[in-house]
Write a structure and sequence with these properties.
The chain is an alpha+beta fold and 430 residues long. It has 18 helices and nine strands. The longest helix is centred in the N-terminal third of the chain and has 27 residues, at 110-136.
Length: 430
């Protein structure tokens, strides 16, 4: 994680391209709903200068410094809109490029991200297999290629939350051990984004998710892949995987505090009944609390050797019942918001009697996502698939209940939201 390089400056010295870390003054005087962002808009700059704030802290490791050679605001705006500017010198151009690097990627539609996310899933699967192989030989070496992969996962989530999360969930029980790590990495990135963490913290969350279960690499295969309930003796063995994983990371080249903490403590519970250290909620770090939620969600939505995965919406509902004592309430609420009450891929019944698959979330109304209708329960027939935005002003339909595909046994639900090509890329369709 980038170490902040903080500098306190008068507001009249603030320029576009600076990273605002903290505004000095009363909360009511603050002109923005958040701090810790790169100042990019001339209107925001004027808003700050006209507020009651007189001083602020900037992070020069993430944006421009007072000592840097500044271009005037009109030239900077012209550059951001693609207009030509001959006034930029080399130093200024370098500073602007540096500031741009820390901005999150621009959002894109699901259909624009799903194929890129499918390729990332395949790359990540291969990387985790390699990491597990190294772990069985005594240590984990997190290479530059793995670091780039983490960036790829977190950037994909920042472009479109749905694509990577939903594809990583579509794993077979043979792939579970490896793809579980990939899925938790994506879930951690999405949750960190929802919590409005910094881009480098989002990437750290993804890295922690990717490495959280490394201890599973040295667990006996017959226990790990057992198609039934573990005995008490076997459960004692499997409960050692957080500490074994932590030791592997320490012995290797992984030294990130958050990553080590998530690996060691993702099975702790807020009521103090978790393992390995039975930590109470106030002693569990934010990242470890995030890891606990993400780990459980992916586990219960996945097909595993001993059980079929639950529907995403059903899983959220069941986790809500466990939340008290198991999860941090604020973290869990943020997690639900990041996924939606009806996560992408959920099968739902509408008031009209139509069945539909959830295709896109509506951040402003979690109960009114975009869906793709495909079956009429009144007629007992498939209907031509069509998208329906339940939040649109003219829409009179609504979700009345989530459905389980165990009863319907539709074989094309994932195809309805992801498309054939993306499923083919991840090996879920021939």
């Amino acid at each position: 994680m980038t170490v902040p390089a903080l500098k306190k400056i008068p507001v009249d010295q603030v320029r576009l391209g600076m990273h605002l870390h903290e505004l000095c003054g009363a909360w009511l005087d603050h002109p923005f709903w958040k701090t810790k962002f790169v100042l990019e808009d001339v209107a925001d700059l004027k808003k700050l200068q006209q507020s009651g704030i007189r001083e602020c802290w900037i992070d020069v490791s993430k944006g421009l410094d007072v000592a840097a050679t500044f271009v005037d605001e009109p030239a900077l705006v012209a550059r951001r809109t693609g207009a030509a500017s001959s006034a930029l010198d080399v130093d200024t151009a370098t500073d602007l490029a540096r500031a741009a690097q820390i901005r999150p990627p621009a959002p894109v539609a699901l259909e624009d991200e799903v194929h890129r996310a499918a390729d990332l899933c395949n790359q990540a699967r291969a990387a985790v297999i390699s990491l597990f192989s190294e772990a069985r030989m005594g240590r984990v070496v997190f290479s530059a290629e793995c670091e780039e992969l983490v960036h790829g996962i977190s950037d994909s989530v920042m472009r479109n939350t749905t694509a990577m999360l939903s594809l990583a969930r579509l794993k077979s029980h043979d792939d579970y051990t490896y793809m579980h790590s990939v899925a938790v990495a994506a879930l951690m990135a999405a949750l960190a984004r929802q919590l409005q963490l910094e881009p480098d913290e989002i990437r750290m969350a993804a890295k922690a998710g990717l490495l959280h279960d490394m201890g599973k690499a040295v667990m006996p295969r017959d226990i790990l892949n057992k198609p039934g309930k573990l005995t008490d003796e076997e459960f004692v063995v499997i409960r050692t995987h957080p500490e074994r994983g932590h030791a592997l990371l320490m012995a290797g080249e992984v030294a990130d505090e958050a990553v080590l903490d998530v690996c060691l403590h993702h099975h702790e519970k807020t009521d103090g009944s978790g393992y390995p250290h039975r930590l109470p909620g106030d002693r569990i770090s934010m990242f470890a609390k995030m890891g606990a939620v993400c780990d459980v969600y992916d586990a219960i939505t996945s097909n595993r050797p001993y059980k079929q995965g639950w529907d995403p919406a059903e899983s959220i509902a069941r986790m809500a019942g466990w939340a008290k004592g198991h999860f941090d309430s604020a973290i869990f609420k943020a997690f639900v918001t990041s996924l939606g009450i009806y996560p992408t891929g959920s099968l739902v019944r509408l008031k009209s009697g139509l069945l539909a698959v959830v295709t896109r979330q509506n951040d402003a109304a979690l109960t009114a996502p975009e869906v793709k209708v495909f079956f009429s329960t009144k007629q007992g027939l498939h209907v031509p698939p069509r998208l329906l935005d339940l939040s649109s002003p003219g829409c009179t339909d609504r979700i009345i209940v989530r459905e389980s595909n165990e009863s319907w046994k539709f074989g094309h639900l994932d195809e309805l939201w992801a498309g054939e090509e993306a499923l083919r890329k991840i090996g879920r369709k021939r």
